[in-house]
Amino acid sequence: MNVLVLEDEKKINEMLTLYVTQEGHEVYAAFEATEALRIFREHPIDLIVTDLMLPKMQGEVFVEEIRHTSDVYIIVLTAKTTLESKLELLGKGADDYLYKPFSIDELLLKLKNIESRIKAEHVLALKAPPGRLTIKEKTNRVLLDGERVSLNNTEYRILRHMARHAEQILSRNQIIEACLRDSEAFDRIIDVYVKNLRKKIGPDLIETVYGAGYRLRGEKHG
């Protein structure tokens, strides 16, 4: 899995990075929320481990920011132990939590259980002009004829949305509403993302429908 660790205390961050890496996961470490949001936009993240007490932007706000665009699994590290604080965390979008000081063994066990669940993932497969396009929605993986395609988080969301609506014409505004609702993106930015997707997956996958928008070509395939 690709794991994003957000923790401003250097020693704890380094410890988490070390142990999670030793379990075979790819770790992206961040020390503040803005840095973590940048990493999340640029890389396909499977799971986030975040502290709550952070500089500049609190962990609760960070969780809400992530939830605007993603259902990625989030584990919160917190010193708040009351029922009210637990309910508040879950209400803001956290999936699970560990009380500080936490057991690294318990965290690693949670990661192992989550990884097992992710492997039983929903797969969207299309028979498309470049070949067989496979989108593994739980792990944010894209394969073309079995070969991994590297996309950033926004490219992935746009491709997934278009694949879910294969052969339908989608306007730029419809794509923004579905994939970039909480950004300040304007309609022509979609042209840039489509251009990048064509470079990575092939020029024939996404068709331009002049005056209307874009259409992803492909038939759902088992």
Task: Please give the structural blueprint.
Layout lengths: L1 E5 L3 H13 L3 E5 L2 H10 L4 E5 L7 H9 L5 E6 L4 H10 L3 E4 L4 H16 L3 E6 L2 E6 L4 E4 L2 E3 L3 H12 L4 E2 L1 H8 L9 H13 L4 E4 L3 E4 L2 E2 L2
CATH superfamily of the largest domain: Response regulator
Q: Judging from the principal axes of the Cα atoms, what is the shape?
A: elongated
Largest sheet: 5 strands, parallel
Number of domains: 2
- Termini, distance in Å? 25 Å
Number of DSSP helices?
A: 8
The secondary-structure element order is EHEHEHEHEHEEEEHEHHEEE
Overall pLDDT confidence: 86
C-alpha-based Rg, rounded: 19 Å
Number of beta strands: 13
> What is the share of helical residues?
40-55%
* Low-confidence regions: none
Provide the CATH topology of the largest domain. Rossmann fold
| Main CATH class of the largest domain | Alpha Beta
Give a quick set of tags describing it.
41% helix, 222 residues, elongated, 8 helices, 13 strands, alpha/beta, Rossmann fold, Arc Repressor Mutant, subunit A
Folded structure, characterized:
There is one protein chain. The protein has 222 residues and is of the alpha/beta class. The chain folds into two domains: 118 residues, Rossmann fold, CATH 3.40.50.2300; 98 residues, Orthogonal Bundle (Arc Repressor Mutant, subunit A), CATH 1.10.10. Helix content is 41%, strand content 25%. The chain has eight helices and 13 strands. Strands 2-1-3-4-5 form a five-stranded parallel β-sheet, with helices on both faces. A five-stranded antiparallel β-sheet has the order 9-8-7-6-13, covered by helices on one side. A three-stranded antiparallel β-sheet has the order 10-12-11. A hairpin with a 4-residue loop joins β7 and β8. The protein is elongated, with a radius of gyration of 19 Å. The model has no long low-confidence stretch (mean pLDDT 86).
